[in-house]
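Example A, followed by Example B.
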Amino acid sequence: MGVKYSSNEKFFDRWGREMAYVLGFMFADGSLEDAPYLRGKYVRVSSTDKDRVVAIKSLLNSDHTIVRRDTGKNHKTAYLLRIGSHTLFNRLNNLGVTPHKSLTMQFPKMPLEYLSDFVRGYFDGDGCVYIDRGPNGQPKRLLCVFTSGSKSFLQDLHAHLVSRIGIVGTGLYPHGSTCGAYQLRYSTRDSLRLFQFMYKGPTSKELHLRRKYDIFTWYLRKRNLSAKEISSVLRQNGPVAKKQRDGLQNRYARVRIPPGPQKYEKV
């Protein structure tokens, strides 16, 4: 008889900052494995960022082993956490993390107070931030990208960002090198909006990927932008942005999203 490893099987039962962050990361770099020949159902998290897999293992109170996977000299080392649990499998499946989800996943309904945590989790998995520099090496533009095989997921994500934080860019493009994949691409002002949205309030080290956060803060230091100056820049929205936001706010006003608990208690 094999060794039985434990994990918090109630983790995804109740909305909270930790739950929303991990769910966002699962939509990006998680998967469900149904193995009927083993009578097993597995939740998998795989990433080249070892600290994200370690953080999720900790948040889930998992005793499972993280496996290192070397796939060749031209690829980064990946780390895999694989949890056998019918309960976690079924709960995540109900939340939208379905088997073979990459092309078909839909944006989940959630209490909007946890949207920033969900978006940050997804960004840490399938997002990137980089700085376009001029000939002298000085930063010119701050650029953010979200990637997915599901066009519908990215369209809904973009709509939420327009409605909630005033994103201006149109956003959605075919992926440049991967057939059937799509990207949301945002330039400097929208990237600053994302930065303020995703990292508002205190955030523990388990709930954000430091190397991506550091790119944002490096750009701000180099441009000598204070929090007040960022807000001043972002107020320069223009009439197009206002019209776009108003239309999406009316659209989402008709969607009933069930409220979550006001206070999250880890179980």
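Example B, a separate protein, is given below in the same form.
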Amino acid sequence: MWLPPNALVALGDNPCWDESTINLSRSFGEGLLARMAKDKARARTAFEAARVQQEKIVQAQPDYGPALCVLAIIDAGLGHTELALDEGRRAIVLTPVEKDAINGSFVLRYFAITAALAGEKNLALEQLETGLRAPVAPLATSYGALKLLPFWDPLRGDPRFERIVASLAPKSADK
């Protein structure tokens, strides 16, 4: 897969994207692009750099679920499946939707991404369905994001995933 050489240049040192409290770094974005390009060595290097950055944030705020949630996504990208899932589950416990609707919704939905990147398809689909019932809708789980973002590539083609995507499709105005 060819990627434009300047795909991340415009970001500068800013986070790759910023949804409320879920901040994925440029290094994470580089890792994700490398993963898409099937460049395992470059992906590992970028995810390892992202992990070093995120570990510092988690150490400074050990009971802050959104920061731990980001670390879980990075660890999933590194192939640390059990660690990633443990971190994601702890992030959910630290940030329950019942006590913090906004951050809890984000953490819950991003756990679905963690599970997808970790190759845990059934768990990812269960978490995505649960997350879609949460009160706040992160951009990463919108119709367009589910159709296009590479996080969801491991789920593409699964009939359950395709049903979820179809359920979020914009309704035609002429119907």
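On Example B: The domain at 16-167 is CATH 1.25.40 (Serine Threonine Protein Phosphatase 5, Tetratricopeptide repeat).
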